[in-house]
Amino acid sequence: MILAILRVIGRRLLAIVPVFAVVTVLIFGALRILPVDPAQMSLPPSATIEQVEAKREAMGLNRPVWEQYAIWAKGAVAGDLGDPRNTACRPSMWFWNVCPRPSNWWSAR
């Protein structure tokens, strides 16, 4: 009985991988199609062209799209969800600070 349950859980967890891959590729592609420049959006309106180009280089936006995705996916798997845009903490740290930890679940009852 337990083995059957573990097998079902294992299959479900393995099914998450292709779904995650397809969804992230679609979202990543959709964000690249948008007519906005993330480097320019992250700088003040008074930024010079040289500053924008330097920011694009620092953000890796001058690399091919497949390479940008590979870098992002590698970071996401490692828990790096990107740089903060409007908060002082990284997204992964925000998640762990806002969401309850499993050790707190039992003590909250």
From TrEMBL:
Keyword tags: Cell membrane, Membrane, Transmembrane, Transmembrane helix, Transport
Entry annotated with the keyword Repeat: no
Protein name: ABC transporter type 1 GsiC-like N-terminal domain-containing protein
Database matches in InterPro entries: BPD_transp_1_N
Membrane topology: Multi-pass membrane protein
Taxonomy, superkingdom: Bacteria
UniProt xrefs under Pfam families: BPD_transp_1_N
Subcellular location: Cell membrane
Membrane-spanning ranges: 12-34
Domain ABC transporter type 1 GsiC-like N-terminal, chain residue ranges per copy: 6-80
